[in-house]
Design goal:
alpha+beta, Arc Repressor Mutant, subunit A, three-stranded antiparallel beta sheet, 4 helices
Length: about 110
C-alpha cells in the first residue's frame, strides 16, 4: 500500500484505490502507526475529530468498506483486536514488506 498525503491518493501495487475522504484519512492514520492498536473511540477522535457526534459503529463500517476496497488479498492489512479496536498490520512477505516500506516513506513525506 502506498499512501500519498500530498495528492490524497492510495495505491496497492499499480491499482489506485477509490477511497472516500474518511476512508483515506483512516487508512493514512493507521498506516502512520503500524502495529499500534487504536480503540474505536480513539479513531473517532483522531480521524473524525472532536465534533463528531455519531456512534463508534461508524468506525466498523468504514473499516469494512476500506477492507473491501483493499481487496481480499490485502484486507488483512487492517487487523481487528477483539474487544479493543483496529491496527495496521505490516505484511511479512518480501514483496509486501517492500510495499510496507513504501507506505512508511510516503506517510513520512
Amino acid at each position: 500500500v502506498v499512501v500519498d498525503d500530498a495528492t490524497y491518493t492510495a495505491k496497492i501495487g499499480q491499482r489506485s484505490l477509490d477511497l472516500t475522504f474518511k476512508e483515506f484519512e483512516l487508512l493514512k492514520f493507521l498506516a502512520q502507526h503500524p502495529g499500534r492498536v487504536f480503540s474505536r473511540q480513539q479513531l473517532l477522535q483522531e480521524v473524525w475529530g472532536y465534533d463528531y457526534f455519531g456512534g463508534t459503529r461508524t468506525v466498523d463500517v468504514h473499516v469494512r468498506r476500506l477492507r473491501a476496497k483493499l481487496g481480499v488479498e490485502n484486507e488483512t492489512l487492517i487487523g481487528t483486536v477483539r474487544n479493543v479496536g483496529y491496527r495496521f498490520v505490516l505484511p511479512t512477505k518480501d514483496k509486501t514488506a517492500t510495499d510496507a516500506a513504501m507506505v512508511a516513506e510516503s506517510v513520512d513525506a
